[in-house]
Each structure stands twice: as structure tokens, then as C-alpha cells.
Amino acid sequence: MNSDDNKIRGTGVTKLSTGAFQGYFGGCPHCGESEGPHNVGRAHWLVCREHCVRWWIGENLFAAWRSETPEEWEKTRCWLSGFRMVDPVYGEDSNLGGEADGNGL
Ligand SMILES: [Zn+2]
Known about the structure:
By secondary structure, this protein is an alpha+beta fold. It has 1 helix and 4 strands. A 4-stranded mixed beta sheet has the order 1-2-3-4. The chain is globular and about 35 Å long. It binds zinc ion.
């Protein structure tokens, strides 16, 4: 299935600046895409649906999670569990540490 996994990272990452937050919180290591945030409680995740990957970007960065219900979080958690956890790629001028330790679930 995922025969593309061995591609050199950084090549073809063309969608980084067009994803969520213009790639500030990183993008899919395969294409640079990012979508989200998706909240599980106070934890925020970004995903690339095409490559079925996810990465944790932090907790309580956005207020939106407070307006969601535990049922919604559980639904999101289930949905996210189908995605593979990865380290996202960042743009050249990113100054984030890039740690995705995956403690959000
Ligand atoms: Zn992707």
C-alpha cells in the first residue's frame, strides 16, 4: 500500500504554505498538506487526509475546543486513530521545535 513512504523527505512538499496556519504548525511529510485543528479535549491535531497521517500541535492553543462536547472529542479521537502519527515538516523560516511527542491521546 504505502509504497511512497521511502521517498526522500522534503521533495514534493508543495502544499506546506497553503495548509492550515500556512504551515506554521508543520505539514504532511509527504505533501506538506495540513488540515485542522481537530480537537480531542484540549489537545489539537493536524492531519493530511490524503496520506492518512496526523501530528499533535499542542494543547489549549485555540479556544474552540471549549465549545465542543465530550461526544465530539470521542468521535474525533476515533477518527484520528485511523491516522498514522508522524513528525511533520516545517518551512525554512519556522522556529518551532518540531517535537511531536504524541501525548495528546
Ligand atoms: Zn500528505
